[in-house]
User: Fold this.
Amino acid sequence: MTDQMSRGHTLCARKLNKSYGKQPVLHNLDLEIEPGHIYGLIGRNGAGKTTLLSILTGQNTKNSGEVSYGGQPVWDNPRALGDICFTRELSPSSEVAALKAEDYLMAARLFCPRWDADYADTLIRKFDIDVKKRLNRMSKGQMSAVTIVAALASRAPLTFLDEPAAGLDVVMRERFYRLLLDDYAQTGRTFVISTHIIEEAAGVFERVIVLDEGRVIADALTEDLVGEFRYVSGSAAAVDEALAAGPAPLQTQTVGSHKIAAVRGDDALFDRLAANEALTVEGMNLQNVFVALCGHGDEEG
Assistant:
């Protein structure tokens, strides 16, 4: 496999809009998925994550805008779609879930020109999947494992996984992330993973996209994004005074006279705040950052 085949091309969305009836879901959205990275796509329920992924992969229509891969439209383009795999969380009540696992994987094989049958067999053993069993007779975790097998064995240069860890216990989630990283190290494939289990997956994401109410509000290297945020705590009066000139906190929590504020800024701001002996300045993890960005100023306490 050549480097170009393994890494793929850039996937671009420009001015993407999508509504269901009168309900807007995506708003004038711009996004680039560059080859050779593991992306995390995070957002609250209803933010439009699954809709976005289904449009990017040519499985859903848009109202307006463009989606291209390597400069060519994705929609109804076999050449582009041959490089793309999209697996999503299965519902036991769906028609697909009536299939046996082996039939589901056979269908995936037909749509994935780079399908690796030996790798699929290895993954089936690692996840202890009974391929003769119907999906709707499996546990939620086993159904998730089947979709993971399909995604990884596709060997697609651009692979999207929507809630792949849903239902997996902690041991199987760790196994999935190890397999994902091993595959990425070997192939340089691009992965885009949508998940609600942010804290566990954060160490896997090289880049992170934050979707909020149908808009991309952050798209950056994970380390860089997390580095822009701090918790600032102290007496409510000290915190308020220190932040009076800005920036406005994204989220606050007050317990008695003690206050914690989530603040976005740069090193100069954080150094100034840390120099204030009345304050404590601490780092935040990706889950903290997500809550601060998408909590819309919620105050706790």
